Amino acid sequence: MVRITVKAFATIREAIGEFGKISLEFPEQVTVKNLIEVLSKNFGERFNSEVLDDNGLPKKTIKIFVNGRDIEFLDGLSTILKDEDEVALIPPIAGG
To answer: Residues 68-86: pLDDT tens digits?
Structure first.
């Protein structure tokens, strides 16, 4: 069993509710891409409009971290998640 904690911030947090933090269990190995697909199914249109582009992939502006490391410096969407990993979804932050 692979247990993953997902933390969502700002507008993505609002899309998933649950105080922006959820735990999911998978029967076998899972990648970041698999996780995003499950989140998409579970949270529907609001999540999809915040996170996914027209091809069903995470928007370039969304930062995804696994245990504090940007997946761009790991294996991208193919990054394999292990039991007890924490995935953070962070939308672009506007500021001034």
So the answer is: 999 999 999 999 999 999 9
Q: Which residues pair with 70 in a beta bridge?
A: 65
pTM passes above 0.85: yes
Write down the domain spans for the chain.
Answer: 2-90
The CA R_g of the chain, rounded to the nearest whole Å, is 12
| Separation between Cα atoms, residue 82 and residue 77, nearest integer Å | 14
For the domain covering 2-90, report its CATH number: 3.10.20.30
CA 11 to chain centre: 13
- Residue 30 has what DSSP assignment? E
**CB atoms closer than 10 angstroms to residue 27:** 7
Task: Give every CB contact of residue 2 below 8 A, 6+ residues apart in sequence.
Answer: 25, 26, 27, 28, 29, 30, 81, 82, 83
